């Protein structure tokens, strides 16, 4: 009799709980564990084979999950930190629900079905918490996407109010639209920016306001489309270079962001990476905690130090009234 394959999301949940389950039952029979987990012995052995090559970023011998299989018995010998069953507290569950609802309302997301399935599972597990009156609606995004696309097709210039998160500021500019494109699940307007006198990418959900002008879009000959084969961010030598020392809990940075060099030195790694500007780096690194230490440049160190001192001063000063 063939056994239907379970969805990858179900398998992920089973894998996350499998390690702490086996840790509490060293030497358990694989058949007994399979019965407890509601899978066949063959499925459980496949799960164990997958776990064997899973672990923390770095994936060296000391980072991977390790186990001993003696005939029909299995024992976890190294858990790679996965020693507790996955449990969400109310705040974490609500944060996930809000984030997934926001993603589901964002136009241009290509994985909407997967998002809605994940949201349904979390809401079902959250019980009454899922009924918390938190509504997420982003109707302006869809209208803005349609309107910008219409302007591009009609060949008109646009006046934008655009938010730049790396500098935490909004600016007004007139642009000559060139094309619409989607990269990494986000919609972008590529246009000639008259203010910067260069081709720029504007993420649609960061356009705070816009006006379609009567004048035609007229990109100059210098308006060359970007090569998007490597993504939106293209680090170059003109951008600031930041050096960090990251512990085990901060190694995810090397996988999520483009880095120029990683030097593995025991438990800590030294990482160098380009950033759009030091203001973004300050806000990003100030929230990373003890797993990330900033080595340079000195200007960034001073910015973070001044921010920390200002925060401590707020705690030292009694609240007025």
Structure report:
This protein has 321 residues and is α+β, with helices and mostly antiparallel strands. It folds into 4 domains: 71 residues, Arc Repressor Mutant, subunit A, CATH 1.10.10; 42 residues, no CATH class; 78 residues, SH3 type barrels (Roll); 75 residues, Alpha-Beta Plaits (2-Layer Sandwich), CATH 3.30.70. It is 36% helix and 26% strand. The strands form 3 sheets. The protein has a 5-stranded antiparallel beta sheet. Strands 10-11-9-12 form a 4-stranded antiparallel beta sheet. α2 crosses α3, α4 runs antiparallel to α5 and α8 crosses α9. The N terminus is likely disordered.
Notable features of this structure?
alpha+beta; WYL_dom; Arc Repressor Mutant, subunit A; SH3 type barrels; PafC-like; five-stranded antiparallel β-sheet; 321 residues; 9 helices; 12 strands; proteasome; four-stranded antiparallel β-sheet; Proteasome accessory factor C
